[in-house]
Amino acid sequence: MEARLSSKGQIVLPSPVRRKLGLVAGDSLRVEIDHDRVVLTPRRERRPSSRLSTSVRTGLPVLKPAAKGPTVTSDLVARLLEELP
Q1: 3-state SS record for 56-73
Q2: Which end of the chain is more exposed for a tag (fewer CB within 10 A), N or C?
């Protein structure tokens, strides 16, 4: 994967990277230099805004999204299901 530096010094992280890390617009990243590499690290771990609960009607697990939560992905669902007792 590649990204290009703009004339203003800006870089766009490819969407697969943003999705994998749960990054959204406005998130802060720590920037470090490691020899000849630039290392970007999210400043805080993103907690899923959706939560898993049980449907009153069916008794099956359902996701309850927050008002401004991240897009629900299969990775997020898998992580939430792992947390079930």
Answers
A1: CCCCCEEEECCCCCCCCC
A2: C
Predicted structure pTM score:
0.48
| The token pair that represents 52 in the structure block | 């898993």
Q: Which domain holds residue 58?
A: 51-82
HEC sequence for the chain: CCCCECCCCCECCCHHHHHHHCCCCCCCEEEEEECCEEEEEECCCCCCCCEEEECCCCCCEEEECCCCCCCCCHHHHHHHHHCCC
How far apart CA 48 and CA 65 sit, in angstroms, is 9
Which stretches of the chain score pLDDT less than 50? none
- The answer to whether residues 40 and 55 belong to one domain is no
27: domain CATH number is: 2.10.260.10
